């Protein structure tokens, strides 16, 4: 008789979490013939600890290489001639790892280009299906490991137009998604953006997946057979569409006494893949309002806060023991805090963001990003960061 060990239970848990979620995603995508809900959602996790500390309010505010992610038109606000940003975060006790890198540079006094690379994945998932050999014995060298990961490359272009403060931009988006040896997908999409700055006001508009973004899935049916239960349908090659989303942002910066500044902003994110239970939602369209604030001192030290992702969550009522459980609906939001330091072109930003909305599973994530800009550039937007 075999005895379970903590190591085996840990392997099995990680295998079940990683592969189970991945296969469910592929089967769900296959089951829906056109545009599954939350398609390519890894592209909406956010980029840069500054923005994540402000509740993902950044469409009208970005002034560094992260603009290629939030609003490509905002790349014309670049304050340095060359700018780069790196970010790493780990979610759910390190199970899910997110990596982000971006670089931007001007071609001339009106044109800026950039490149952004994103990866989100679960690594070293143990495939323990062959752990026990034909003699009923545990054989550790039969364990194989694989990763489930999503990748995206954004190539950005931005240009200033005639009216002062007006810029437009676009992203060409290349996507690769991989589920070990079971399935992979290639995709392509386009984002477009516009930004207008006048005085202390900043206005931004981003249309993501404006032409719809597709993922063409290729399924390895032979490898899938060993993971499905009897009677379960094995998915086949298919195309998954990501429907457009529109983000409108407005921000205003003003001065405070003693060399302090304040930057306040709000975004309205509109998705078109169905009712997401947000504050404003219909059968096909959902609107998620977000707000953020940044207090700066002498353009050196910054404190930030933000709120967004309000959703209606079903909560369990407190009832006496032995009484059937009852539930009620509550509105829950996702809150974040952040801080940053900028000195001699180097920027270090931290964000603390709550991952879940229900009180029973409150999980906070600490995100750190590094940015560095060097070389002087005339015409960039001078801001608090």
Which tags fit this structure?
Porin, globular, disordered N terminus, single chain, 17 strands, mainly beta, 4 helices, 385 residues
Unreliable stretches: 1-33
What's the story with the biggest beta sheet?
14 strands, antiparallel, barrel
Trace the largest sheet across and list its strands: 1-2-3-4-5-6-7-10-11-13-14-15-16-17
What separation lies between the terminal Cα atoms? 63 Å
Q: What is the number of strand segments? A: 17
CATH architecture annotation: Beta Barrel
Strand content: over 45%
Helix fraction bin: 10-25%
What string gives the helices and strands in order?
Answer: HHHEEEEEEEEHEEEEEEEEE
> How many domains comprise the coordinates?
1
Number of helices: 4
C-alpha Rg, in Å? Answer: 23 Å
**Helix- and strand-based class?**
mainly beta
CATH topology: Porin
User: Could you say which overall geometry the principal axes of the C-alpha atoms support?
Assistant: globular
Provide an overview of this structure:
The chain has 4 helices and 17 strands. By secondary structure, the chain is mainly beta. The relative contact order is 0.18. 10% of the residues lie in helices and 52% in strands. Strands 1-2-3-4-5-6-7-10-11-13-14-15-16-17 form a 14-stranded antiparallel barrel.
């Amino acid at each position: 008789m075999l005895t379970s060990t903590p190591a085996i239970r840990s392997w099995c848990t990680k295998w079940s979490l990683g592969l189970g979620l991945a296969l469910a995603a592929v089967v769900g995508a296959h089951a829906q013939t056109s545009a599954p809900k939350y398609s390519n959602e890894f592209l909406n996790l956010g980029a840069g600890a500054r923005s994540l500390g402000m509740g993902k309010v950044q469409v009208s505010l970005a002034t560094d290489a992260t603009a290629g992610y939030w609003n490509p038109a905002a790349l014309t606000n670049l304050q340095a001639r060359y700018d780069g940003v790196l970010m790493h975060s780990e979610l759910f006790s390190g199970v899910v790892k997110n990596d982000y890198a971006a670089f931007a540079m001007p071609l001339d006094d009106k044109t800026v280009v950039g490149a952004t690379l994103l990866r989100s994945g679960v690594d070293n998932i143990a495939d323990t299906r062959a752990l026990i050999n034909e003699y009923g014995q545990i054989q550790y060298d039969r364990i194989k490991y694989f990763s489930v990961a999503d990748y995206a490359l954004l190539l950005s272009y931005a240009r200033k137009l005639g009216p002062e403060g007006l810029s437009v931009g676009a992203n060409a988006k290349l996507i690769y998604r991989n589920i070990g040896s079971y399935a992979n997908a290639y995709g392509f999409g386009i984002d477009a953006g516009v930004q207008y700055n006048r005085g202390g006001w900043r206005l931004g508009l981003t249309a993501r997946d404006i032409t719809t973004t597709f993922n063409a899935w290729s399924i390895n049916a032979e490898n899938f057979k060993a993971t499905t239960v009897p009677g379960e349908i094995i998915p086949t090659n298919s195309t998954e569409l990501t429907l457009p989303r529109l983000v409108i942002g407005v921000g205003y910066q003003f001065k405070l006494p003693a060399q302090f500044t304040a930057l306040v902003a709000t975004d309205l994110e509109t998705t078109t893949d169905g009712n997401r239970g947000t504050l404003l939602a219909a059968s096909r369209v959902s609107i998620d309002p977000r707000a953020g604030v940044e207090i700066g001192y002498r353009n050196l030290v910054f404190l930030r806060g933000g709120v967004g992702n309000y959703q209606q969550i079903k909560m369990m009522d407190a009832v006496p023991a032995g009484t059937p459980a009852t539930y009620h609906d509550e509105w829950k939001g996702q809150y974040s805090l952040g801080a940053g330091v900028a000195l001699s072109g180097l920027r270090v930003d931290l964000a603390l963001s709550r991952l879940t909305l229900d009180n029973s599973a409150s999980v906070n994530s600490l995100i750190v990003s590094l940015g560095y800009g060097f070389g002087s550039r005339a015409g960039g937007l001078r801001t608090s960061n």
